[in-house]
Every structure is written in C-alpha cells, then in structure tokens.
C-alpha cells in the first residue's frame, strides 16, 4: 500500500476534474475510470472502490439499454451521464478524504494556506464521515421501530431528517470543541505524527498524472 502526500493527491484530483469536463468519448472516459480504480486500490481503498465500480456499472448499463435516451422524465440520459462522471470524480477524492485531519492541517500550514481557509475545509472533511455514520444509525433505529414506510413517505422523511438535524448540530459542536482542545487553531508550528515530505513517489505520481492527462486529450482528439 503506497502512501502519498496530499499535494500529489490534489494534482490527481484536479487532473480528473479537468478530464471529466473535457472527455466526450466513452472509451477514453472509461479508460480514465479504470486508471483511477488502480490508483485508489494501490492506496488500500479497495472497498470504497468496489461500491463505486458497481454503481458506475449499473448506471452505464442503464445508458446502454436505453440507447443513450434515458428512461423518460424520471431518469433522463443527462442525469445518468452526470452521475457517472461525478462518481469518477469521487474516485479521485477518496484518497483525499481518507487523509488524517492532522496531516492535512500540517500540509496546509506548510503550503502557507491561511487557517481561515484551512480550518473550514478540515472540519468539513471530518464532519461528513461522522454524519454518514450517524445517518446509518438513525435509519437502523427507525427500521427496528417499524417507522420506515413507503406508504407514508413524508412522515418517514420527518422521522429521518428531524433527528438528523439535531444530531448534525451536536456533532458540529463536538468536533469543534475536540479540535480546539487539540490546539488546531493555535498559532505556531503544528507537528504531525507522519513526516510531511514530498517524496520521489509523489513526483513520479505527478509526472504520470501529467502524462496520462496529455495522453487522454490526445486520444480524445485522435479517435
């Protein structure tokens, strides 16, 4: 399992966003997706990758079955198109989201990013995984009580989102308090358990990313 610096992960992410926005041919696009799957898997995030692969496979199959016309108003082809491309971007985001907050803060300090920008980003990245876990617990609780019903969708939404709103507010306060106790907003030099260094592997990944980006554009224009 390879460990990359956050900066090289950002290079891959930005390259992916650029390519997703310019690639129009499915063969080239899915080649990009395959490369990203390898990239994410090499960093040890295979489980998250499998879920996204299945989702992209299902959506791509729906596009194929509908001959690129979608399924009427309910599932238009543009919706399928956008979701598939968004999932590819999510693939490139996974390694960034899995980066420990302390390491992110240390790197941002090293990059001279102002803490008014860095702190909200770190809180956001820490907030969503916790909310996801809380959301799952609420759903499990509602299922045990038999409160989830397709026949009463609005009531089910109320049972789901009202506790989620209160829980999210509580989580935000707890995360902010925990971060303050750990000195995340303290001035001075912040340390990290991991060595924050742009290694040779990061240079290689960045060079490969640039090469792949140029190759994808060439393939897009050639075929």
Proportion of β residues? Answer: under 5%
What composes the largest sheet? none
Distance between the termini: 35 Å
Helix count equals 8
Please compute the radius of gyration using only Cα atoms: 21 Å
Shape category: flat
Mean pLDDT score: 79
Give the low-pLDDT segments: none
Total count of strands: 0
Query: What's the order of the H and E elements?
Result: HHHHHHHH
| Secondary structure: helix percent | over 70%
User: SS-based structural class?
Assistant: mainly alpha
Protein name: Energy-coupling factor transporter transmembrane protein EcfT
Keywords: Cell membrane, Membrane, Transmembrane, Transmembrane helix
Transmembrane segments: 48-66, 78-97, 201-219
Pfam families: CbiQ
